[in-house]
Cytochrome P450 (Mythimna separata), 489 residues
Amino acid sequence: MFVTLCICLLAILYYAKFRYSRNFLYEFCKTIPTVGDLPMLGHTHWFIGGPEKILNNIRSLIQKIEEKGTVSTIWIGPSLYVVSLDPEDVQKILENCLEKDYSYKFLQAWLGNGLFVAPVDLWKAHRRLLLPVFHNRVIEEYIEVFGEQGNVLVDRLRDQVGKSSFDVYEYVTSCMLDIVFETAMGKKMDVQHNPDTPYLRARKTVMSIINMRLFKAWLQPDALFRLTSHAVTQKESIDVTHKFTDEVIQNKIAAFEKLSDSEDRKDILQLLLERKLAFSNIELREHIDSITIAGNDTTALVISYALLLLGCHEDAQDKVYKELHSILGDSQKSPTKEDLSKMDYLERVIKETMRLYTVVPIIGRKTDKELKLSTFTIPAGVGCAVIPMVMHRSKRLWGPDADSFNPDRFLPENCAARHPCAYIPFSYGTRNCIGRHFGMLAMKSILANVLRSYKVSSKECDQLKIEILLFPRYHSEKTLPGTPISLKI
């Protein structure tokens, strides 16, 4: 009995100290309106359920915020977030808050201090060293790879011509994996013909477990997570992926002198070694793993969503085909740098796709000092949630037809007066996506190869889920896959 009383007393004292240390947060919250919260729970109940339910809950909660204004606080467990839907505020957050939010820590067991999750001081030093490797001139050397793998994709899709709907994402993601492995590591994986390997299975397993931790509060504390079987599975799978990348790096270092004399196209890993940057082998692995992960699913999803949209907007697909024919004629050659630069309408289609289906739906940052926004000042140590997937469909920012597909929104004259943070598919500020030029060129090249080879038919994707990225769940007819299209020649 005495021991129980002591434990209860200690728990009460700990909670009192915890509350006192965070009193500034509670005082701050009194200055900003909030909606949808419950006593003790805050907004945690909005984030319970499967990935589709959570996405719908987030949309409903943000709609309530928009009805009251553009700013709110959100409590998820003990974590406080400020949400602003005002582009001016978003610009200040993304320019001044470079530290990633606590939620990104779940990726660190896998990616370590790669650019995507690195603490801000390390990120600044490493990004400065990596920027020359992502220069436009360097990335444009990989256009040949985009064309080669795009042609393989076109050949594989031929088996689906004239058949019922199929999930095009499964084809596109294999193509993008082949591209990122070859350009990042010089490794020809041929995933398009061999999609089931221990490495790829391990990658999928890790991503699945990380997503579970993001949206299941009871799996977030490390002490509780380590008690589950997921912790063992995650470690085993991470070890498989690390072993693969470590072997690639060791082989590349062993062959470095021979490769450095070659005039062949050089992959990113080789360029990093040639520059003799002060990266350890572990740091090289962290950056290469980050590049291959960030460059695959995001780009593959945008391509798949673009095909879905064009498949149900025949007029837009016809415009793309005519543009491609005017540039490439009847030839089957892969697009060159000059060809890609002329694909203005296709680029607008891609941008409109990224607006309607924002594959990185939420950006989390943390204040490291006071930050003055339009109507209030955020203290240090507070999370900031930027929600592009909501802003990109806001009728306040995009007009009453915000949910409609209209690539001409991105004509120069229509973009001139638009706030730069009304549209942020690659984030914004100095901590934006370092691979955005790579992604745009790859998307244009692959879509060009597919759309001049096939006529696409589809229905718009109306069921989505949030699993770190914005994925399709299934079509409303339930029997169809997540990104269903059908093809004709």
Observations:
- Residues 219 and 225 are 5 Å apart (CA to CA).
